[in-house]
Task: structure prediction
Amino acid sequence: MRHGGQILVDQLKAHGVRRVFSVPGESFLAALDGLYDSGIDNVVCRHEGGAAMMAEAYGKMTGTPGVAFVTRGPGATNASSGIHVASQDSTPMVLFVGQIARDHTDRGAFQEVDYRQMFGGLAKWAAQVNQTERLPEYINRAFHLAQSGRPGPVVLALPEDMLSALCDVATLPPSAPARPGVAQADITAILDRLAPAKRPLVVIGGPGWTPQAGADLARFAQTHGLPVVCSFRRQDFMDNRHPNFVGDLPVGMNPALRKRLGDADTLLLLGTRFGDIATDGYQIVAPADPGKTIIHVHPSPDEPGTVLRSDLTVTARTGDVLAALARTNGGPGWHDLVADMRAEYEVWHEPLETPGDVKLEQVIRHLSDTLPDDAIITNGAGNFAAWVGRYFRFKQHGTQIAPTSGSMGYGLPAAVAASLEYPDRPVVCVAGDGDFQMTLNELSTGMQYGAKVVAIVVNNGRYGTIRAHQEREYPGRVSGTQMFNPDFAALARAYGGHGETVTRTEDFPAAFARARAAATMAVIELTLDPEALAPGMTLSAARAAGIGRKKP
Result:
């Protein structure tokens, strides 16, 4: 006889779970008891949003579900931000939420929430386990759904009396994953669709990528002379130094690449959903009239055709398709097109000078040029991230951990999770001042568990992204975007970590070297000129453009 918490933990062990992230609550005491001597590492966080984001980052890094435990009511609502990231980013994740006792249901009991309703539009599946003996069944289904098709988050609510009840039930082995094969006819069809193209473009993204998939992509692109771009925050899927890599499709993309995307006559979409960010709000490629041949490879049969019609749909894991494509012989190819697009990428990659004594573009280029190829870069959301995306060259798979959902506060929890998973690799979080303050309490978590993260906090005293939009729409009418900040370096030291403030670009390399040598949680605060709004954009220029646009 085992209590439900022990049954749950034994089932997690059967699924190979090595680490979970949590904020403790009285609603799942039995699960905490099951974790006590389980051998599973329980990383106790400071906020449920941080725990959920760490679990999501773990799922991104490993390709297996990240697991988080939070308590009912406020705990679950706090964790919902991480569920949204996992949903938008196609990340496998399982969130366990403590729940009120079953005999109090529908009475508006303390912290009662119907989690099926709450997470119904965010998760792939949200359910409540009401029978202790069915825990293995529910957990197996949760892990299967989190990883199948287009991966995503699953939420299981656990009534506290169900968890504490004793039961005699066997631990189930995991369900065998579905592994659809790739038919040779599909590979032939892809090549046949590409052959007549004058201006083809390969767009990569989505879930399930591996170092081998990246190597196969490079071989396929080089053999066939194809230009490759990545979708938003998937820049580590292909070595950015490769001659066939020609850029990415973020917010504020390279205008030359934007035109190339619009002019392309054939798109080979590999794993990516190819949504509104990649198409600039569906302006470059419109659902009503794409104006090009679309070949869509995706692991879920439901994704292609959801927004953009496809001329050829291949339902398969991207890595399996690339393995087959890498074995094919190339034809004449489009080598001149690749060379021209690569040249445009190199021009875009050249730094534009930022006003002030700290040049963020030079800081990012220093990181790009000096960090080892396997260094992990994390970030949340804000204009500061545009410098990372534009000026850092990612060299290998698994080195960019960032939310395609645009979630602020993501970078630091993700960096802590990355450092715990890969303790021998450099981990750098680049964060804005507003972004960092949303989850800076996870510095404490990092210190407790021995994470070694260097957080570079870009301090310009404002919510920069919103300010940029504000100056465009309502120039000169500053409202709700100014910010009071602490001494971030002193805060790091207060937590027992390393902290420095950099006010001149030339001082950054030495400060960064000291932060890395400290081998603990470290913060380098960069004091940015308030005029620095985005790469190539100053606050004054944004305001002037807004004023000019508002004139009759």
